[in-house]
Specification:
The complex is a heterodimer of chains A (59) and B (471).
Chain A lengths: L1 H11 L9 H16 L2 H6 L7 H6 L1
Helix pairs in contact in A: 1-2
Chain B lengths: L4 H10 L5 H19 L2 E4 L1 H16 L11 E5 L26 H8 L3 E6 L28 H8 L5 E6 L5 H7 L2 E4 L19 E6 L2 H11 L25 E6 L8 H16 L3 E6 L6 H16 L1 H6 L6 H12 L2 H24 L4 E5 L12 E3 L4 E3 H7 L3 H4 L4 E8 L5 E7 L5 H13 L18 H4 L2
Parallel strand pairs in B: 2-3, 2-4, 7-8, 7-9
Antiparallel strand pairs in B: 1-3, 4-6, 5-6, 5-12, 9-13, 10-11, 12-13
Helix pairs in contact in B: 2-3, 7-15, 9-11, 9-12
Classes of the chains: A mainly alpha (59), B alpha/beta (471).
């Protein structure tokens, strides 16, 4: 099931599934998704605050 | 006496102690000789460099002086286009076809009179900190850092006084730190990335790696992309680095992401703080808790941007790309866009948190160890800290990448050695467009320390011809 899903994702990007190892990709996607999820705290904490990047450059 | 090797070379050329051709000939000889052990150069262009040197000698004889870089040998990281040379990015996935145009930064350096002698080894696709097969000049068992490892090794070995590097998460400052030299990542987009192979377009920066802070300043002055009417114009033509630093307020960054660090780094860093305080700088300890999210934000952005740029290479020749880098590129293409957007949101928050720290504490400079560790051995994958082990790449990037995310200028300067005689660096971070301030304070720090007096294991000997004249 996972292998099929990875193959589909690769094909959608024009990549050949034969040239990539599905399990390696799956593990990597999981690790990166977990790392990205660690941003939850930061994003929630700052939800109410101003996040105007431009103002940083003008000061 | 000046600490600038560029100034010494420049003076020797102008008072006719040596000609540009003689200087370049000796540079090429040392590059070829040392490269057997160092493996810092991907390409050395003897004929081209000597031809340029001959033209520059003729110009000086007829009164044409292009400024402080006139006749100075320079090396270029092999992700930057130089017309007539291939750009390989340290990767088999790139062709050997020569570039047809110079990158903008190369155009600027050439018109300033720099003599390009060759291209230096990057970590593949500028995406890593090992830069193999290049060795660290202080000890060939150690890596030179990366991704601008070849550029740093060539400068540290004394082959060239300056080499061009790029920095997406620390790739100028990491190798400068572990090779015991200076390197500055300027404010985002202050040096043009046009003609440079991107890793991550919104995080990439171009800057010099040089033997001294002064040589960084001289080089940066010629690399900059700006008009003279800018209110933030950086002008080094008045040699404006010296001066008191009593008016400077420095924030010492504590907690994450600087901690944990190796004990030797802490000792060297605190000694440097003491030196700066003794010169009158005002010191305050600060924390920026948001920076603990640096790695998550950095990688959420690099993956999609790099994956998108290299997509055709993944389609054509995925087997020619290193497996770890390939995984980063593929995941960047496959992960949902929301993860990239969250990375961009986190980046904004991180940049704002640094701004608040500068403003609330009335800081001119933020000071950190450049890295929490020194150079890794060639096969080493992790560092051991008191409470954890951590991948070498993560260790190196966590103290440098916050300032790529925020686009701030950051300078690494040597501040000591570990027990294995491997260099340690200190990082001066400035406000946007604040290069002049960090260079001034970095210069003052460098001038009151003697770390630059030590020579690496692999280096051009002082007795090597023209080097004697430059002592």
């Amino acid at each position: 099931m996972i292998k099929k899903k990875i193959h589909l994702l690769l094909q959608q990007q024009g990549l050949s599934p034969l040239q990539f190892d599905s399990e390696t990709i799956w593990n990597d996607l999981r690790e990166r998704t977990a790392l990205n999820a660690s941003l939850d705290d930061l994003l929630e904490e700052e939800q109410e605050k101003s996040t105007n990047f431009d103002c940083f450059w003008e000061k | 006496m000046t600490s600038s090797l560029i100034k010494k070379m420049s003076r020797a050329i102008r008072d006719q102690t040596v000609s540009t051709q003689e200087l370049i000939l000796e540079t090429l000889e040392s590059a070829k000789k040392l490269n057997r052990d160092l493996r810092a150069f991907e390409l050395i262009d003897e004929a081209g460099a000597l031809e340029t040197a001959s033209i520059l000698d003729r110009e000086l004889a007829t009164g044409i002086d292009r400024g402080p870089l006139h006749g100075i040998p320079v090396a270029v990281k092999d992700i930057i286009d130089v017309a007539g040379w291939p750009t390989r990015c340290g990767s088999q996935a790139y062709k050997t076809t020569p570039a047809t145009r110079d990158a903008k930064v190369i155009t600027n350096l050439k018109s300033a009179g720099a003599v390009l002698i060759g291209k230096t080894v990057p970590h593949e696709l500028a995406c890593g900190v090992y830069s193999q097969p290049t060795r660290n000049p202080w000890n060939p068992d150690y890596v030179p850092g990366g991704s601008s490892g070849g550029s740093a090794a060539a400068v540290a070995a004394g082959i060239v006084p300056m080499a061009v590097g790029s920095d997406t998460g620390g790739s100028i400052r990491i190798p400068a730190s572990v090779c015991g030299i200076a390197g500055i990542k300027p404010t985002f987009n202050r040096v043009s990335c046009s003609g440079v192979e991107p890793l991550s377009w919104s995080l990439d920066h171009i800057g010099p790696i040089a033997t001294s802070v002064e040589d960084c300043a001289i080089s940066l002055n010629s690399m900059l992309e700006e008009n003279s009417s800018s209110t933030h114009h950086f002008d080094y033509s008045n040699n404006n680095l010296s001066g008191a630093i009593q008016d400077i307020r420095i924030g010492i960054l504590r907690g994450e992401p600087v901690d944990p660090m190796l004990p030797e780094i802490e000792t060297a860093f605190m000694d440097a703080v003491k030196q700066l305080r003794s010169r009158g700088a005002k010191i305050a300890e600060v924390t920026i808790p948001e920076l603990r999210h640096t790695i998550a934000a950095e990688f959420a952005i690099i993956g999609p941007e790099a994956g998108y740029y290299h997509k055709q290479r993944l389609i054509d020749h995925p087997e020619k790309i290193d497996p770890d880098i390939r995984a980063l590129l593929v995941s960047g293409l496959l992960l949902p866009t929301s993860q990239y957007i969250r990375g961009l949101q986190a980046r904004t928050i991180i940049a704002n948190s640094i701004q608040r720290c500068f403003n609330d504490n009335h800081l001119d400079i933020l000071l950190t160890p450049t890295l929490p560790a020194t150079a890794a051995r060639v096969k080493q994958t992790e560092f051991e800290y008191e409470d954890r082990t951590e991948a070498v790449t993560i260790s190196y990037v966590r103290t440098t990448a916050p300032f790529n995310l925020a686009g701030l200028p950051a300078l690494s300067v040597p501040c000591g050695f570990d027990k294995n005689n491997i260099p340690i660096g200190i990082q001066f971070v400035g406000k946007p467009m604040g290069e002049a301030v960090i260079l001034r304070v970095g210069y003052v720090y460098e001038s009151i320390t003697s770390w630059r007096d030590q020579k690496p294991m692999i280096a051009k000997p002082d007795s090597f011809g023209i080097s004697q004249l430059l002592m």
